[in-house]
Amino acid sequence: MKHFFFLPVLILMNFVLLCARAEATAFTVKSGGGGNFTTISACANAASAGDTCTVFAGSYGGWTQSASGTAGNPITFQANPGDSVTITSGITMSSRSYITIHGFIFTSNAHIVGNGSTQHCIIDSNTMAGTQVFQIKDGLGNGGSDNIFSNNTVNVGSISSSTPAVYVYGDRNRFENNEIFGGGGDCFDLGGTNVVVRNNFCHDLDGSASGEHIDFIQEMGGGTTPPLKFALVENNVEQKCINDGGNCHFIIVRTGGAPAADTLIVRYNFAQNLNGTGASFGGIGDNVPNARFYNNTMATERRDPENGACVSFQNAANGVVLNNICYNTMANQWSPTVGLSFGNGNIAFTSGYVGSWNSPYSTEATYNALRNLNPLFANYPNDASLLPSSPAKAAGVRLTTVASGDSGTGTSLKVADARFFQPGWAGTQGDWIRVGALSTAQIRAIDYSTNMLTLASSIGRSVGDPVYLYKDSSGKVVLTGALPDVGSYTGPLPPVNLEVNVK
Questions:
Q1: Which of 27, 159, 238, 246 could, after both became Cys, cross-link 307 (CB 3.0–4.6 A)?
Q2: What distance separates the 2 farthest-apart alpha carbons in the chain?
Q3: Do 274 and 303 contact (CB within 8 A), yes or no?
Q4: Distance, CA of 380 to CA of 386 (rounded, Å)
């Protein structure tokens, strides 16, 4: 008699064994013994896609990551909840992807380094110290991509070092909800396409010993450095920056003749008490076109009387500045403006100054209505929120309009200028817009060359209808009335390093 059941049973057994081998492993690391390993390095060498190394209290050396995870199955290194776990030396993730590092305390000797093939890694909810905590700058032109640096607290702790805290080149990287303070160098040195920097707090910076020109974000192009382009800087705060005189900036973008740093969207940020200019797009020999700078509050406090401007454009063609508050910046002086295309809806106020302002600010349609108005902050200098009686409330202008040639219906919306919006870079939500008084829709895609927005749902509209930002990249509503406020809505930033224990 033939036993035909043997082959199906064998196939079933192999399937069960395969599933068993594919099951993720939860390893434990205890420096005093009693776990699977006594070092993180040993656990890293054993771990494969989907595995977790949970590290218990103690001090541990760093490691060189030997394997990558996969999409949906990262290799995770995490501190045991409630334990203090210190990393005393560096971690190298070069040519590795899908690695998560969560909940550790890094000493000043420890840092995380990757290269152009470091991708889809998450550095989250760590406490870090040292002059440079995350670095991907191998000079290959692009750098690591699709990485997330989030919810970290970085105490640089050395004003004598000019090294940036975060120095990362690459595309679609996201930096959010971090606090960086106490250093003598930049908070972020970045380059790449579709980079997102949002909800970060950088403060108490001192370049007097390092001699560094300190910036919240710096892009210095040239050579193989990739330009920062089609990128979003949103809802960040920089406060209390001094240096060697007039060279603290919220954002400074230079290309040095390299490819253009095109279409930078800088919105809803708050900079306060800086020894320099709020925002500086371009300089001699640079190429920084199409910057969109709107709904920011720049309060430099004129720490340096020769360089306390609100925003500067030089060799930065087609720049647009809308709905910003320039508070206690340079009296009478708006900024160098070579390349500035258009401005409107801006409030310039300097305490004790009642005179006229120079061009191009004086040519804005809203100039006479908004100049020299005290914005009446509710909680200054802690944040840029406004009192209900503020003249900045509902005083803003539209960003763009429905353009000629639009069909008037459907999900393909042609606007006069699409560069105010982003379709969901670096894993964020695509912007929501409001068209006219009532119609809202989310953006799914943007063709910047044709100013065409692809919407998630069809809305009716007419040529010339005003278009506003309705929700930002996190889904927060920023337009609550008929017209936008002037300035940033930035309030207290979310706390970092929170642990959620579900029982």
A1: 246
A2: 107
A3: yes
A4: 9
Nearest to 215 by CA among 242, 192, 186: 186
- CB-based contact 152:127 (threshold 8 Å): yes
Residue among 190, 192, 131 nearest 165 (CA) = 131
Instruction: Tell me how far apart the terminal alpha carbons of the chain are, to the nearest angstrom.
Output: 58
Are residues 147 and 113 in contact, defined by beta-carbon separation less than 8 angstroms? no
Record the tokens describing residue 393, joined without a space: 């409330």
CB atoms under 10 Å from CB of 236, counted, come to: 29
Strands (DSSP E) contained in 162-248 are 166-169, 174-176, 179-183, 188-193, 196-198, 201-206, 215-220, 228-229, 231-234, 237-242
How far is it, in rounded angstroms, from Cα 500 to Cα 493?
A: 18
Q: Please answer whether residues 453 and 424 qualify as being in contact, where contact means their C-beta atoms are separated by less than 8 angstroms.
A: no
Classified as helix, coil or strand, 60 is strand
Query: Which pLDDT tens digit goes with each residue over 110-131?
Result: 999 999 999 999 999 999 998 7
Rounded distance between C-alpha atoms, residue 416 and residue 432, angstroms = 17
Task: Give the three-class secondary structure for 359.
Answer: coil
Neighbour tally for 409: CB within 10 Å: 11
Read off the amino acid at residue 12.
Answer: L
SS3 call for 159: coil
CA distance 168 to 163: 12
Q: What is the pLDDT of residues 365-392, one digit of tens each?
A: 999 999 999 999 999 999 999 999 999 9
Which residue, 422, 456, 423, 452, is CA-closest to 439? 456
Question: Is 16 strand, coil or helix?
Answer: helix
Alpha-carbon gap, residue 361 to 301, rounded angstroms: 19
CA distance 251 to 48: 40
Tell me, what DSSP letter sits at residue 171? S
What span, in angstroms and rounded, lies between the C-alpha atoms of 298 and 302?
11
In a 3-state reduction of DSSP, which class is residue 406? coil
Structure tokens at 312: 């500067």
Whole-number Cα distances in Å, 88 to 20, 59, 151, 298, 477: 36, 7, 20, 39, 42
Contact (CB, 8 A) for 51 and 78: no
The yes-or-no verdict on residue 134 having pLDDT over 80 is yes
pTM (two decimals): 0.92
- Phi, psi of 57, deg, nearest 5: -50, 140
Determine the Cα–Cα distance for residues 220 and 286; give it in Å rounded to an integer. 10
**pLDDT > 90: what percent of the chain?**
72
